[in-house]
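Model it.
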Amino acid sequence: AGAAGDGTLAVLFTDEPHRCPEAWDAAVIFPELLKATPLAPRAAVLPPDESRTAARQFGVRKYPSILV
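Modeled.
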């Protein structure tokens, strides 16, 4: 298990809420998931335009997605 600050990062990739209403749900659940994990990762939420750019780099094809 990691510790906070060990370089572990969890990133929430979002999409426009009108195209992907689940993005709202993920935004609410994401902090709860972070609390429940023993990794204690640093976290980031990418807005839709940044999500699309980063998604190409990391192979993310579905939204919302979480990459750790």
